[in-house]
Amino acid sequence: MTDVTGPLDGIRILDLTRILAGPTCTQLMGDLGADIIKIEKPVAGDDTRGWGPPYLTDKDGNDTRESAYYMASNRNKRSITIDIGNPEGVKLIKQMLSKCDALCHNFKVGGLEKYGLGYEDIHAEFPHIVYLHISGFGRTGPYAKRAGYDMLAQGIGGVMSMTGPPDGDPYKVGVGIADVMCGMYATTALLAALRHRDRTGQGQLIDLALLDAQVAWLINEGVNYLTCGKEPVRRGNAHSNIVPYDVMPTSDGYVILAVGNDAQYKRFCEYAERPELATDERFLTNDLRVRNRDAITPLLRQMMVMKTTDEWVQGLAPLGVPCSPVNTIPQTFADPQIQHRGMAIEMPHPTSQDGKCNLIGNPINLSETPVTYRRPPPTLGQHTDEILEELLNLDAEARQNLRDASIV
């Protein structure tokens, strides 16, 4: 295996997750140096391998099985195919667990218990293992046995009721944010549980639900409601507690104007050549501007169309007034700041047409133990032989026997 210098070097995770929430967690752990062994179903593999187009294309220009969706959350992992529906496959899983620190999965509640891989079974045999179970609704409660997906969590969890135009349909967030945020919480939970294990020798169960994670990141809007009992409403791009904090039209496009305090507001009005709006008694403070948003918003929109997007962005930046363009995805990856920060990366890939794949970089910057990009998203079962030999000391004949029996 490639030399690892990350802070999680020495941690090995048996990863039975698929789709997005779990793989987001384990990819982050892998970026930080952990050895992630991705267990996939023979022939089929992770569901997202087929979630395309687009796919990587091979040297003949044909689509591979490596969808962009799959590649988004599966680098720095090794893939091994094992049929856990076969008792011999379960035996392999348990043999590997003796060399691992954690097991992660997102099967439905009760899904692994029938194979003898539930938490109680694993904890009894491997008390040091941290057992992460991500599910749609958690292991307990009236919805526990329901299948859960990102959009369902966004809907039940309330964020869709606040997203979209004030008078239109509720909107989901443009990416699977409930999955991604659940993966972030899962990473934190894993690190905490591993810290506890290192101190006590005891593993534990992590029960993490998409819905719970979604409700947790309602943040200020959720606490607004819990504080005053008033239901939040959709405001399009406007902020419930700050004005002006909105998308505004310019003479050639749109900008985001995000005035966070009264001093910024005064400087904005001066640059906009409308100083009287800074002394208008209706708009003197953010509290007043929030209460009088219906009066100030039309005035702001009339003002903003008098300059170009670049004039607003470049003019307000030196004044410390937050303002930015609304970039398309191509503009985002062409942005000089984003390029400087290394948020688009290129990795070699064995099956792609040009021998590489393009991925989104990890945003974590550690001065002494930086993230590393060691392995591209693996092809299905790419490391089966390597892992079986390394962890279980199985020779070529033993591995072939497993293949002949359709266990791997």
Describe, in plain words, how this protein is organized in 3D.
By secondary structure, the chain is α/β, with parallel strands linked by helices. The protein has two domains: 12-217 and 339-404, Rossmann fold; 245-249 and 254-325, formyl-coa transferase, domain 3. It contains 17 helices and 13 strands. The protein has helices at residues 21-31, 68-71, 87-97, 119-125, 150-156, 177-200, 210-216, 219-228, 262-271, 276-279, 286-291, 293-304, 309-316, 329-334, 336-340, 384-392, 396-404, and strands at 12-16, 35-40, 55-57, 63-67, 77-81, 102-105, 130-135, 205-209, 245-249, 254-258, 323-325, 344-348, 356-360. The strands form four sheets. Strands 5-2-1-6-7-8 form a six-stranded parallel sheet, with helices on both faces. The chain has a three-stranded antiparallel sheet with strand order 9-10-11, with helices on one face. Strands 3-4 form a two-stranded antiparallel ribbon. The longest helix has 24 residues, at 177-200. It is elongated and about 85 Å long. The two termini are 21 Å apart.
How is this fold's topology laid out?
Blueprint: E1 12-16, H1 21-31, E2 35-40, E3 55-57, E4 63-67, H2 68-71, E5 77-81, H3 87-97, E6 102-105, H4 119-125, E7 130-135, H5 150-156, H6 177-200, E8 205-209, H7 210-216, H8 219-228, E9 245-249, E10 254-258, H9 262-271, H10 276-279, H11 286-291, H12 293-304, H13 309-316, E11 323-325, H14 329-334, H15 336-340, E12 344-348, E13 356-360, H16 384-392, H17 396-404
Parallel strand pairs: 1-2, 1-6, 2-5, 6-7, 7-8
Antiparallel strand pairs: 3-4, 9-10, 10-11, 12-13
